[in-house]
Amino acid sequence: MMRTWQITTVTDAARARISLARLAAAYGVPTVERTRLAAGLSAHLRQCLTKGGTWRLTMDLAGSTAEEGLLHLVVTPPPEACAAGEPLWEVTVPCPERTEAPEGGTVADDPAALSEALLGADEDTAVVLDKLAEQEDLVSFHREELHQTNQGVLALHAELDAAGRAQREAFAAERSARNEAESARRRLTFLADASAVLTASLNHEEIVRRLPDLLVPEYASSVDVWLFDQEEDKHRSAPHPAAAVVAARTGRPQYAADHPGNLPGVDDQPPSALDPGRPLLCVPLPTRRAPLGVLTLSPPGGRWDPDDAVMLIELTRRASIAIDNARRFEHNRDIAETLQRALLTDLPVTPGLSLAARYLPATHGLNIGGDWYDAFPQRDGGLITVIGDVTGHGLHAAVMMSQLRTALRAYAVDGDSPGRLLTRLHRFLHHLQPDLYATAVIARFHPDEATLTWAAAGHPPPVLRLPDGTVRTLDAKPGAMLGIPLTQEIADHTEELEPGSTLALYTDGLVERRAQGIDPGIVRLASALGRFRSAELDADLEGSADRLLNPLLSDSERDDDVCLLLCHFQGGANS
Questions:
Q1: How much is the pLDDT for 66?
Q2: Which of 237, 304, 440, 552 has the highest Cβ tally under 10 A?
């Protein structure tokens, strides 16, 4: 179905617009599309009237009743405008309801009817405006809803950001706590290990030497130990920082630098005049009586961590205790050694018998004071030689050894045999010191006899070298240790002597090794003694004693005293 309108005047344009609006409504064109179509057509027709001439509006409805129709509008210019190149104006809108030609749709020529039709044409505009108002309300509602949503999203983002920040802070705090715990564990481990190293030695000079090795370079770049009693040594005396002097005087740690140290328990001092650019931490070495000295350290970097400084102060305290204990030990060892050496008498000169003795104190541990030897004549001209070992070490053992030595000499005045002397010593020791024991070997020589009488009580057996180089171990059944809670009578043993025979009495420090026991050591002693020549022993018994000791002690840790008494029988005085 097609309709055509000729447009020459405004009235023609109005009538065509009104007719088109009615037809579009009849064909079911939606209100908004219909209003858009009418507005667009009105605007174009206004331009056409301005240009003048007769314009033709054609409306064509395409499509069948079975499908949606299409309303097609075309505005054709006048022929002269077409010749001038004026284009057609076309628009197509869907018609979903009808495809048949509606009744009416034309507008009468009466002005009143035309005016009424124009007023009615605005109904679509009113409907559109109402829809626009609804849409504005809907848009306003959605805008408010979006605003609320945005506010919620912003609040959620703020909460998430706060939660993330709190989580990051928690992670940072956990990481910091873990690092602090690891640092504390590392410091405690170092403190324990360093304390074990320092207390392992009983030599105070060795402890002082170990301190720099422990601290440099991790906790200090340099370490200086100032011990007060070494000031008399002019070769070692040197200027000390003023902060070290203050630490020695006050007993408090001092920090000398051009900046505050902020170290707990440490006083700040101006930088040292000896080295102004180097920070110094001066820590006194405390004891129960008075400081031993001052430990001065410089930091491995620009300054110390406060926790490291606390650890260094504690390590200094432990080092001071170790040094003080080592000095006490050295003092007691020196007293014991001095007492023991004072009690080891000079060997007597006996016709037909040469004697050589060696006493070597232990070099490790407080093991001085237990070993002893003695040789003295009896009233009948016989010579008693003895070597023994008191259990325990130190000053107490040295004192007990002196009492046994004195008691033995007193008992020997009566002329008792070695076995009888040991029996009496056993009773004496058990009565005097029930918790202290001793071992001993006594050998008796007589210048008029070629006989050796000996007895042993829990002691390593004597070793006898015969003139031909044969070596025998005198291991006849010995008595038990002296002082044990046992009644015993210790027996004498005799051995015929040939001129040139040599008897070796010794303590276990010469032959015993921890990993091997004592028997292999006795075999080594016998082998070494057998390698000597008789002429060598006759000519230089003292030198022979040294040459005997050197190979036997080459593998010894010297953690026990060593005593050796060589008795070289040259023959009777009247032979």
A1: 46
A2: 440
**Sequence-ordered strand ranges (E) for 48-105:** 55-62, 69-76, 89-95
Contact present, 459 and 388 (Cβ < 8 Å): yes
Classify 377 as helix, strand or coil. strand
H/E segment holding residue 502: strand 501-506
pLDDT beyond 70 at 363: no
Q: What is the dihedral of CA 158, 160, 161, 164, to 10 degrees?
A: 160
Per-residue model confidence as pLDDT tens digits over 11-20: 888 888 888 8
- Could you tell me if 488 and 420 are in contact, meaning their C-beta atoms sit under 8 angstroms apart? no
- Would you say 385 and 345 are in contact if contact means Cβ atoms under 8 Å apart? no
Element (H, E) at 375: strand 371-377
Look up residue 350 and give its amino acid: T
Cis ω before 217 (30° cut-off from 0)? yes
The DSSP annotation for 231-284 comes to: TT-TTT-----HHHHHHHHHSS-EEESSS----TT-EEEPPPSS-TTS-EEEEE
**Predicted TM-score (pTM) of this structure:** 0.53
* Helix (H) / strand (E) containing 548: helix 541-552
Q: Encoding tokens for residue 120?
A: 């009615």
- Helix 306-343 vs helix 395-412: crossing angle, to nearest 10: 10
> Given pLDDT bands bounded at 50, 70 and 90, which one contains residue 364?
low
217 three-class SS: coil
pLDDT the model gives residue 392: 74
Question: CA-CA distance, 552 to 360, in Å (whole number)?
Answer: 13
Torsional class of 326: left (φ above 0), alpha (ψ -120 to 50), beta (otherwise)? alpha
Contact 384, 418 (CB under 8 A): yes
φ and ψ at residue 452, rounded to 5 degrees = -105, 125
The pLDDT tens digits of the residues spanning 454-468 come to 999 999 999 999 999
Mean predicted confidence (pLDDT) in 132-144? 84
pLDDT digits (tens, 9 = 90+) for 191-203: 999 999 998 888 8
* DSSP string for residues in 421-473: HHHHHHHHHHHH-TT--EEEEEEEE-TT-SEEEEEEESSPPPEEE-TTS-EEE
User: Which residue in this structure is represented by tokens 């060598």?
Assistant: 536
Q: How far is the C-alpha of 304 from the C-alpha of 268, rounded, in Å?
A: 13
